[in-house]
Design brief:
Layout (H helix, E strand, L loop, with lengths): L6 E2 L4 E7 L10 H18 L2 E7 L3 E7 L5 H20 L11 E4 L3 H12 L1 H4 L14 H5 L9 H5 L7 H17 L11 H4 L17 E2 L14 H12 L3 H4 L6 H17 L4 H8 L3 H17 L1 H16 L12
Antiparallel strand pairs: 1-6, 2-4, 2-5, 3-4
Helix pairs in contact: 1-2, 2-13, 3-7, 9-14, 11-13, 12-13, 13-14
């Protein structure tokens, strides 16, 4: 079946969240929590985000952010890839830190914005971690109330939604609003049960293309050319055609710089953009899982830092997405 398009609207405001794999509480470790927040701030500064709400829980995070011209998926790859790479290195782990790719929805009304701001900051109360969100250190609530120096959040931008130019009055109105939402017990719902998520036609939906005519898919394709759901063998077949490598070359013991580059490209596309499992790709290439993970980490790092490498991945991705089954495409067999 066709995969629903992940749309990007420059300048849009998004509610983004993601869980840690296997439900592990990776960020109950205060050091890891601080490292996540510092990485978040770096991505914010590099890509021009305006962060309007945030909350980091032990096993997931929520962000409300406004983008500029950098595609959301690029910034999220930078954030999640950096956090995952550093976490695994510190703990000696291999494999994924995140349960799946992030989920996101466009915030396109004032009422939705006010609700989601409160929902995000009430997460620790709903989870029973604290009885007052002002007692939780890893969220934007204290910043909005003026209880600490704004480090992550754009306080002025958020308080403008509460109807006054006086920041003290606006902060009081924000606090009263959060209390009213808490009394309605909205924060106890799962994300997919929220009013603004429940109407989504697909769990990966970012925006409704009928309502947002200026949107484009996350990889720059026209909406009519949305990516198809591929099996691993078909993905590999298309990659080999687009890249001009052969499976025999990529799975060989040869270590030329050209072949290493091809392996990194393949693994980065297959695991980070198409969601295939590392174990399956390792078996297909006859490579150890640790080797595939090393290539993935190298690819994610280069994707976030090297525009030439990122452009190469984008070009391959477009060719793979647009390729059609025909007699000119060679088989993946060596």
């Amino acid at each position: 079946m066709p995969r629903q398009p992940r749309l990007f609207i420059p300048g849009a405001t998004y509610h983004v969240y993601c869980r840690v794999a296997r439900g592990e509480f990776a960020f109950n470790d205060q050091y890891e929590a601080v490292e996540f927040v510092e990485t978040l701030c770096k991505v914010r500064d590099l890509d021009g985000w305006t962060i309007l709400a945030w909350c980091l829980m032990g096993n997931h995070f929520h962000l409300v952010l406004k983008t500029r011209n950098v595609d959301l998926w690029r910034s999220m790859a930078r954030l999640q890839g950096t956090v995952s790479r550093h976490y695994n290195r510190r703990h000696g782990y291999l494999g994924r830190l995140w349960q799946s790719r992030y989920r996101a929805r466009v915030i396109d009304s004032d009422s939705y914005f006010r609700q989601v701001i409160a929902y995000v900051h009430l997460n620790p109360v709903a989870a029973g971690v604290v009885d007052d969100p002002a007692r939780y250190p890893f969220s934007g609530h204290r910043e909005l109330l003026g209880l600490c120096r704004p480090h992550v959040i754009d306080r002025t931008a958020v308080l403008q939604a509460f109807g006054t130019e006086d920041s003290c009055v606006a902060a009081d109105e924000y606090a009263a609003w959060v209390r009213s939402v808490a009394e309605a017990r909205l924060g106890e719902r799962e994300v997919e049960e929220l009013p603004w998520w429940a109407s989504a036609t697909h769990v990966e939906e970012i925006a409704d293309s009928k309502r947002h005519s200026d949107a484009r898919t996350f990889d720059g394709l026209e909406l009519a050319e949305e990516r198809k759901e591929l099996g691993l063998n078909e993905f590999l077949r298309r990659f080999l055609v687009a890249s001009d490598y052969s499976l025999a070359e990529l799975s060989s013991s040869l270590r030329s710089s050209n072949l290493i580059e091809g392996r990194i490209e393949l693994v980065t596309l297959a695991l980070s953009r198409y969601g295939f499992r590392s174990h399956d790709l390792s078996a297909l290439l006859s490579k150890h899982g640790a080797t595939v993970t090393r290539w993935l980490n190298a690819g994610l790092k280069r994707e976030s830092e090297d525009p030439v490498f990122r452009q190469r991945l984008d070009e391959l991705d477009r060719e793979i997405s647009r390729a059609r089954n025909n007699d000119t495409m060679r088989n993946v067999a060596p």
